[in-house]
Write a structure and sequence with these properties.
Layout: H1 2-11, E1 14-22, E2 33-36, E3 42-44, E4 50-55, E5 61-66, E6 73-77, E7 82-83, E8 86-88, H2 107-110, E9 117-119, H3 121-126, E10 143-146, E11 152-155, E12 170-171, E13 174-175, E14 199-201
Parallel strand pairs: 1-7, 1-8
Antiparallel strand pairs: 1-4, 2-3, 2-5, 5-6, 9-14, 10-11, 12-13
């Protein structure tokens, strides 16, 4: 009974083998996926393009041969212990044209309704000033007043003073003005140069933002 059951189990399996090559030059293709259609059963070809697949289903069924850059081939298996050699054709994928270009200015700045002066991390590292906040004086339309060694205030329009209530200073979107003074206190309690990636200075009216 054991011998009979072993023969019956062996009879239910199907073995397929063969070679997979490039149709254009005949070179063997390694790593080609060979799967049974609509089943999670398969194998891959070795570096010589050889493959062998043993499945527990009987013919007929369909094998799919897929590889990156080549057209997927489908071959129907009709007999057991079959040798199937496959030649895959190179495939061409046509899509929409993609244009990649480099720009020193972010696209969001170009589309902004107001002018934006931006200082990136390279400008901060190469600035001759003591810190990044002091480098703002080199931007156009900027007037800076220094009250002490650490307290600097900037102005873009109108009179400049140590407490400029017309300027809004944001750090990561958070208003940096002192609650008791109602104006930004420069960079007294602000960021270090290592924590700053870029600075955007908007001299336009706040109502246009």
């Amino acid at each position: 009974m054991l011998v009979t059951s072993t023969i019956l189990c062996h009879a239910q399996s199907t073995t397929i083998s063969g070679f997979i090559t490039d149709a254009s030059n005949g070179d063997p293709l390694a790593g080609v996926n060979i799967t049974v259609k609509n089943r999670v059963i398969g194998t891959i070809s070795n570096p010589e393009g050889e493959y062998e697949l043993v499945v527990d289903i009987l013919p007929p069924f369909t094998l799919q041969y897929s590889f990156i850059g080549f057209t997927t081939a489908q071959i129907e298996v009709t007999e057991n212990n079959a040798t199937i050699n496959v030649k895959l054709e190179e495939g061409t994928l046509l899509g929409q044209e993609v244009v990649v270009s480099a720009s020193r200015v972010a696209e969001s700045i170009l589309e902004s309704p107001v002018s934006i002066e931006k200082i990136d991390i390279l400008d901060i590292q190469q600035a001759p000033s003591q810190d990044f906040f002091g480098s703002l004086v080199n931007q156009k339309n900027v007037d800076m007043t220094t009250q002490s060694f650490t307290f600097r205030s900037i102005s873009l329009r109108g009179f400049n003073a140590y407490g400029n209530t017309r300027m809004v200073q944001l750090i990561d979107g958070v208003d940096n003005q002192d609650p008791g003074l109602n104006f930004a206190v420069g960079n007294i309690a602000g960021l270090a140069d290592l924590d700053v990636e870029s600075i955007e200075l908007l001299p336009g009216a706040s109502s246009a933002l």
